[in-house]
Design goal:
This protein has a 7-stranded mixed β-sheet with strand order 1-2-3-4-5-7-6, with helices on both faces. α1 (16-30) runs antiparallel to α2 (37-57). 34% of the residues lie in helices and 32% in strands. The two termini are 22 Å apart. It has one domain (7-171): 3-Layer(aba) Sandwich (Aminopeptidase), CATH 3.40.630. The longest helix has 21 residues, at 37-57. By secondary structure, it is α+β, with helices and mostly antiparallel strands.
């Protein structure tokens, strides 16, 4: 990524391949040991590509997906499921940034734009996410933005009948992200 700031915009169906590629790369970087090597090397891209084609191609999708792009490609994305849970509100389902760009503010920028758009569409709802317990870097990132760890759950893994421990991180309504 060059010194030019990326543009954050709504995702389009034509972004599905690039989103799937980044999603798979991010999972390979952060979930090794949690998900099988076979899944991460042989299946994750095709499975994520199918998921993103479906999400972005649906007319009545409950998801808000934004991408961070530059001339040289897509560098991050955020996906929020509106009204996902009556108690917890909007689900921050995905936030992924090119692993080589982590720590440079792109994830926080996507969060801030995403939260602002969700607040316009569904004002006054809380927000939550589930993150693998072992992903300490992500947990620190969300806590720094004001997220509160609010219990543990078993989260099904996409590769079959396995699950992994996850932490729910929540923001009460109205969602206000802290300055990092």
């Amino acid at each position: 990524m060059s010194h030019i700031e990326p543009v954050i915009r709504s995702a389009r169906v034509t972004d599905a391949e690039a989103i799937a590629r980044l999603h798979a790369e991010s999972w390979r970087s952060s979930n090794r040991g949690l998900m099988s090597d076979r899944y991460l090397e042989d299946e994750v891209y095709a499975e994520r590509r199918s998921l993103w084609r479906g999400r972005l191609g649906a007319d009545d999708s409950p998801y808000l997906t934004l991408v961070a792009v530059q001339r040289d490609g897509l560098h991050g994305f955020i996906c929020l499921k509106l009204r996902a849970d009556p108690k917890w509100g909007t689900l921050l389902d995905n936030l992924h940034v090119d692993p080589e760009l982590c720590g440079r503010g792109l994830g926080e920028a996507l969060m801030r734009v995403g939260v602002a758009q969700v607040e316009q569409i569904t004002p006054g709802l809380p927000m939550y996410l589930l993150v693998f317990t072992a992903n300490h870097g992500a947990r620190r990132f969300y806590r720094r933005l004001g997220g509160i760890e609010s219990g543990e759950v078993d989260m099904p893994l996409p590769e079959g009948d396995r699950s992994a421990h996850a932490v729910r991180i929540a923001w009460p309504a109205p969602v206000l992200l802290q300055a990092s």
